[in-house]
Structure formats: C-alpha cells, structure tokens
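#lab-general

N.A. 3:47 PM
ok so I finally got the sequence cleaned up, no stray characters, all 439 residues accounted for. can someone with queue access submit it? mine expired

B.Y. 3:52 PM
send it over

N.A. 3:53 PM
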Amino acid sequence: MTFKAPRGTKDLLPEQQPLWRHVEQTAQGVARRFGYQRIDTPMFEDAHLFVRGVGQGTDIVEKEMYVFKDRSDDELALRPEGTAPVCRAYLEHGMASLPQPVRLYYVCPIFRYERPQAGRYRQHHQFGVEAIGDADPAVDAEVIELGWRLVEQLGLKDLSLVMNGIGDKACRPAYLESLRAHYGTRLSEVCPDCKLRYEKNILRTLDCKRTDFKCQEAADTAPRIAERLCDACREHWMQLTQYIGALGIPYRVEHRLVRGLDYYTRTVFEIQPREEGAQSTILAGGRYDGLIEELGGRPTPGIGFGTGIERLVANLQRSAEGGDKQVTAPAPDTLVAYLGATAKEQALKLASELRRQGANVVLAPAGKSLKGQMRHASALGARAVLILGDEELASGTVTFKDMASGEQKRVPRAEVGEALKDLTPLHTMERGNEHGQGT
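B.Y. 4:20 PM
back already:
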C-alpha cells in the first residue's frame, strides 16, 4: 500500500521552508511594530463556538467544518477560522480588564473541507491579527494599514485595497428587506446556492462568484448598502476613508464586498491582485462589533484580518519568476571532513564545539574518500571545509579550506572558530533571520 498526503493537504519540504519562514517572520515583525502580541489557541474547539460566532447559514458551518465527537461525546471542530477562538480566549481570560484595544496576532493551521484549488487547501496556514475593545475608525485604519504594510514589505506589487461599509444591526435589517425584495423576483435566474442564501443569509448573495447563472447581474443591480447606512455607520465610514487617504493607501469602494461570515459589521476589506480580483484575494477582514456579545460577553467592538501563508508564498513565487529576488535556503557554513576512525571521533567533537559557538556545521557522511567528502561539501554549498587527519591530530591543527577562493591553510584547532567568523561576516543567527530561519 502506498500512502500519500490526504487530498487538499501538502508537505512542506526543506527547500520550501526558507520562503515560508521569511513570510511568517516578516508578518510577525510587522505585527510587532504595530504593537500586536502573539496568541496561540487550540487546534480544535467546541463546535458550537463556530456555529454561534461564524453563523449557522455560512458555508463554513454548513459545508466546510471538520466536526467530530471525542470519547466524552463532546462535539468538537478543527479550527476553520481564527477570529472566534481569539474572541473566546479574550473572554475566558478576562482580557477586557487590560488596556483596550487588546492587539493580538497569530500564525496557525486552518481546516476547511472544500474543493482543493490553487492557493486553497483543506489544511492551510493563516496569519491573522485582531484588535479587540475599541470602536474608533482609527483602529480600522490601523488594521488595514498593517495588512497593507505587510504585503508592501514582502514586495508584492500590483495589489488593490477594496473596502465597503456594510452597516450594523441598527441599519442593516431595513437594507436586507430591500435586498430580499430585489432577489425575490430573480430567484429563477440565480444559482442553487443563492436560492439557499436568500432563505438563510440574503447578504451573501452579493458575494456569489458563479457565472453560469445570472448571479452577477442580480448582484450588480442590487440596492447598495452604502446608500442606506444609519448616521453612526455613515460617520464611521467617512472617517475611515479619510484616515486611509491620510495614510496614502490607494483604495476603491466595492458595493458587492460583504465577506462570508455573519459576524462582520460596518467595515469589510480585501487586498486583491488587480488582474485577478476577488477570486484570488490575498488578505481579507473586517469589523465584528457583535461577536463578543454573541459568544456571551458584554458588547465589545473588534476588527481584524486573516491572510493565507500559501497564498502569500504563491504570489511571491510568481514575483520571483518575474525576476525579483528569491529567498533561498542558507547553506551550511562548514563541513568537517576526516580521514580515519580516530579523526572521525575528533571531527564529531569539533563540529559539536563549533555549533556551540554559533556556527552552522555538518559532519561529512561516512564511507566517502576525502575527494568524495569535498564533492559533498560542494553539493551542500558549504563555504568552508575543515579537514582532520593523522597529521592534523598530531600537530593540534585543522586544515581550513575556503571553498570560494580555493585557499587552503593550517589553523590551530583553538582558533578555528575565529577563522570561521572571518569567513562568515554575518553571525549564523543573523543570517538565519535574514533567510527566515530561527524564531
């Protein structure tokens, strides 16, 4: 029997790790500069957390969640999104007593049973931020800027910020009635999913992507929620757009942008590639002022976004194919070669000593001649080879070969660490961080 990774999942191989670590560490660095702190929540939660938080009529709850019962007969779900668990943690740990807003970020796997396609997997990885406890539109602007600075720092180009104001529980009900009236005369023309949304979550009809029915035409001609906002939501929206303009971030308003989760209020936004649009959204989020209350807490505003690491990596790889700089795996600084069993033991000790000094060192594989060990060093991309044999052991020295220049010299064993520092200007950890290694 041949085993393969489950459908909709993928292995992350060693040669792919540097770019992933680069993306993750860039994201975390940007978040920290904005004052956000890391939080990690469990990979699975009470399934009802997502039913209450995300919404019964959403695709996530009805079609995509991995739900199971444990041995205590509790119904659990693998985490299908990041916001509800963070809000649960905010409530459970009394974070309302902290200075508000509480600024949190996370990097975690997300699980959704959906049709695998480019940039979308049944297990994917998400970087997200949440700012909980402040309703000021300046916080919306901060969160949106954080997302924009992230893609900017990663070097992604030709992106578009798309925003919309979708009202709140004060003004949205009247809008939903007008939307229901609009779609009520078009139900025979729209897709089966939109017919279901008409019954359960009419706002989601605006988000339909299908082109084999008249869903696009119905959405394009639908009433616009921006024209029906209450005074408070209109003021919030006007201040937000003013702040985004002051930050110098270009944006456009899209009246069909509503996002797919029930908890969104007022602000929703996406960052999209200009040539592909919403089908390949890179980063998306919005305000969720009613979510904490829905989960049993006091009314507490919040806003955040999520972005898939896979989607970011794919876009960076596409940029690299266009000639931009690629992030590559760092080669080991040094390979320790040896001749004979006694030298092998000393080579093992030398490699250990150098690692403790901070060097990146590998031991040559067994059973190879010195020539074979040198070829192995070249294949790894090592910058130096340290050679131990009978002569070196007798004299207390190491033969040091610079693989770039070909220069070879004898160095006292006690001075090898200093010689490596001369060869490698960047300390190993510094160089590791440049390439996304380490933490």
